[in-house]
Amino acid sequence: xxxxxxxxxxxxxxxxxxxxxxxxxxxxxxxxxxxxxxxxxxxxxxxxxxxxxxxxxxxxxxxxxxxxxxxxxxxxxxxxxxxxxxxxxxxxxxxxxxxxxxxxxxxxxxxxxxxxxxxxxxxxxxxxxxxxxxxxxxxxxxxxxxxxxxxxxxxxxxxxxxxxxxxxxxxxxxxxxxxxxxxxxxxxxxxxxxxxxxxxxxxxxxxxxxxxxxxxxxxxxxxxxxxxxxxxxxxxxxxxxxxxxxxxxxxxxxxxxxxxxxxxxxxxxxxxxxxxxxx
Length: 279
Hints:
This protein is α+β, with helices and mostly antiparallel strands. The chain has helices at 40-43, 48-57, 61-69, 78-85, 89-101, 121-135, 146-153, 163-175, 190-197, 203-206, 230-241, 258-268, 270-278, and strands at 26-29, 32-35, 76-77, 105-110, 113-118, 155-157, 160-162, 179-182, 185-188, 215-218, 225-228, 245-247, 254-256. The strands form 6 sheets. A 3-stranded antiparallel beta sheet has the order 3-5-4. Helix 3 crosses helix 4 and helix 12 crosses helix 13 (270-278). The longest helix is centred in the middle third of the chain and has 15 residues, at 121-135. The two termini are 28 Å apart.
C-alpha cells in the first residue's frame, strides 16, 4: 500500500517546485537548489520535497485533530471538525481546503450539506502509522481512562477492526491456517474462506476488486498487525449488520456483544477464544 504524497508545503496542488526530470539528481525548491543522489529517481518518482509537503500538512495540531476525527470512517461536517479541532469555522475551512487539495480528505455533498471523510484507505493507514510513531516518543506519564481502555479493546481503524479484538482475529486466522502471511500481504486460504463465510464474508467477489484483498496494518496500541483490505472491511460491515458489534457515539471504540464474541469464536475456532481471553 502506497501513500499519496500530493500537495506540497503551501497546500493544494500549487507546486512550489518543478517536478524533477527523471534521471536527474537536481531539484529546485523554494528558490534553493538541493542535490540528491541520482539513484533516487531509479527507485521512485516521488521526491523528498513531496514527502515533506505531505508531512507538513500533519504538523499542524488542528489539521491532525481533524484527520484523527475521521479515522472512525464516518463523514463529518466542517462545523463538527472545527469543534473537534478547537478552531473557528473560518480557520477550519482553510485547513480543510488544504487537506482536500492534498488528496487526504474528500468532500461528499448531501443535499444542502457538505460532509468530509478520509479520501482513501491509504490516508487512514498513514495516520495510524503516525500514531504508532508518536507513541514511542517521550511523553509525560498519564493514567489511561475508561475511554482509553475501550479504544485498546476494540475500535475501528478507518473501515476495519483494530485493537486487541482486531489483532486476535488476525492471529486466530493465521494459527488456524486460514491465512498465509507474505510480508504485509495476507493470502486467504480455502479454509480461511470457509471461516470468513461463517462471519458473513464472501471472499470470491472481493478477489475481483482492485483494492488489496487482505493486508496487515500495524496496530498502534498492540504494536502487532490487524487485518486491513477489502476482507477486513467486510468483516466489520457484516458484524455491525448482524448486531455483533455496536459503534459507540463520538468514539472510534466499538462494543463487541456477547453474541458477537460467540459468533467469532465459532467461526475462528478455539484459538480465537484463547487469544481473545489473553488480550
